[in-house]
Amino acid sequence: MAEYDPPVTLPYNVGAPVGGAAPVAAPASGRPLLLGEILMRDAGLRPEHLERALARQQDEGGLLGEILVRLQAVEEAAVMRALGVQHDMPVATELPDAESVDAELIDKIPINFAKTHRVLPIRIDADENVEVLVSDPLEVEVLDDISVLLGRAVEGVLCPPSRIVDLINKVYGRLRGGAELAEKQDVEDEYGDDEELVDILDLTDEAPIIRWVNSLLFHAIKERASDIHIEPGEKEVMVRYRVDGVLREHKRAHRQYLPSIIARVKIMAGLNIAEKRLPQDGRIRRRVAGKDIDMRVATVPTAAGERVTIRLLDRTSVLLGLPDIGMATDTLGLVRQIIERPHGILLVTGPTGSGKTTTLYACLSEINSPELNILTVEDPVEYQLEGISQTQVNAKIDLTFASGLRSFLRHDPDVIMVGEIRDRETAEIAITASLTGHFVFSTVHTNDAAGAITRLVDMGIEPFLVASSMVGLLAQRLVRRPCFECATEVTPSEELVRELGLDPERFFAGTYELPAVKGQRPVTPGKVLEARGCPSCLNVGYSGRTAVYEMLMISERIRQLTLQKADAGSIRNAGLDEGLVTLRMDGARKVMQGLTTPEEVLMVTAEDEG
C-alpha cells in the first residue's frame, strides 16, 4: 500500500495556476498562491532561481517544477509537496513494492501509455476507487482515460516522475516476462535528426545479444553512469560502470559471448566489425530511458580480446549556470569579475574528468548575449549552446584546436573557447588572440592553478606573453556528495580536522564564517557527514558530485614572478599571501556545509597539498 501525506487545505490553493507570474511576498486577498511562491515559502527557493526558471519556461516551454529540479534549485520531493498544497491532492511518501502492485490493473494499461504520461495504477482502495500515481496534477484527461480502461473511478496521488518511471520498469518487468521488456522499451534507435525514433519492440527478430546490450545501456543511464567498460577476461566478460567518478562492477557474461557483444556495439557505432587488430572510434545516438544519449565508443585490442569503452553524454540534461556548479559566493564573484573583461585568457585546470568543460560552458552561458560573437572549437561538442558557433575537432581532415582557432580570428570573434591547450602552436594562437582584443577560455592539465603558468612556459611560450595575456587561473576537482538519505553526522578527530587545514578550536566551536554555496545542508557545528550506504544510493554512500575550486587572480606580483620564470610553488605562495583559497580550503568549507565528506576532499587534493 502506498503511504501518502494528506492534502494541506488552504483557502487559496485550490485550482491555482502552475506558475508564470513574478513572486510576491504575500498573495493578494482571495488570490491563490502560485507554485513558485509556495516553494519560496516552504522549500527555501531563492527568488533569482525562480526568475531564471520562469525565463527558461517562457523560452523553451515545459513544467515549472521540472525546470526548477533540472536547475537543482529545489528537490523533486519539495515540488511534489508544493503541488499537493496547490492542488489539494495527496502526495505519496512511500511507494509499494513491485510485487504488491495489482497485476489486473497493470494488464489493462499499456506500458508506453504509462511511461508517456508517467502514471501508474497501484491499488484499489477501500472505496473501490483506484489509486493512480501521477506526476502532473493537471493530467485530468489522462486520469479519465485510465478510469475508462479500468472501468472504475480513480484518485490521483502525486509522486515524483523519476520514482514513477522506476516503479513502472519494475512492475512491468515482473509481470511481462522479466526486466528485459521494460529495458527494451526504454532503448530506441535514432536514424538521423529529422527521422522518427523507432521503438526496438517493433523489431520482432531482435536477438538475445541485442537485448543484452540494450540492458547495459538502460541500467547505465538508470545508475547515472558516465562510462561503460566491457572488459574481456580469460573465462568471462566483465562489465563495469563509472558512477560519480568511481568504477563499479555491473555484471559478467561467459567468454563465448564476447565476439557477439563487441560486434553489436560496433554495428551500433558504425565501426568495421571485421577489423579486430586496430583501435577504432565511433559514435552512437540512442534514446535510453526517455533521454537522448550520445555515446562515444572506443575499441582496443588486448591479449584477451577486444575491449570497449563507451562514454555517455545526456543531451537532454540542462546546462548549468555559474551559480549551479558548486562555486561559493566569493569564488563566483572573482570568476564573474574576470569573464566580464573584454580581453585576456582564463584557463581552467585539472585532470581529465574534473568538470572543466562544464565550467567553461557555464561561463559562456553567463556572458552569452546577442551583442557578442562567441566561437568554440571542441573535442567533442558536448552541449549545443544557442547563439554560439561550435566547431568539432576532426583530426582526419586536419581540423585541430590550432587550425580551428587560427581560422576563428578571421570571423570577427569577441569570445573564443578552445577545448584544450595541448601544444605550443595552440597556446601561441590563443595568446595572440587575447592580446588583440579577444577573450579566450581554455583548459590545461595541471594539478593546481599556479602550475598552469609554468606549463605554458615549459611549452616554449615567452614569459612576457604569458604575463601579459593571463587574467585568471581556475583549478578544480570533483568530489562526491554524500547520500542525504543515509549520511550521518559524526565527530571527526582533531588530527582529521588539522589534515583538512582547519583549526580544531574554531571547527568544534563552529566559529568559521562560510560563504554561501548552492545546495549546502545544515550540519551541526563540530560535526561532519559520514557516508553509510542504503538502497537509494545502491549502498555506496554517495549520490552525485560537486566541485571544489581554486581561483588564482593574476596580480601585479604574480606577473612579476611569471616574468622571472618563478616555479609554481613561489607563484602559489604569492597567491596565498593575497588570499588564495586553495582546493583543500574550499573542500574543507564544503565539508562544513554538508556538501561532501573529509575523505573525498583529502583524496582529490592529496597531490596538491603534498
Automatic annotation (TrEMBL):
Keywords tagged on the record: ATP-binding, Nucleotide-binding, Protein transport, Translocase, Transport
Bacterial type II secretion system protein E domain sequence ranges: 409-423
Catalytic activity: ATP + H2O + cellular proteinSide 1 = ADP + phosphate + cellular proteinSide 2
GO MF annotation: an example: ATP hydrolysis activity
Name of the top EC class for this enzyme: translocase
BP GO terms, sorted: protein secretion by the type II secretion system
EC nos: 7.4.2.8
Annotated Gene Ontology cellular component terms: plasma membrane; type II protein secretion system complex
Family that this chain belongs to: Belongs to the GSP E family.
Protein name: protein-secreting ATPase
Provenance organism: Haliangium ochraceum (strain DSM 14365 / JCM 11303 / SMP-2)
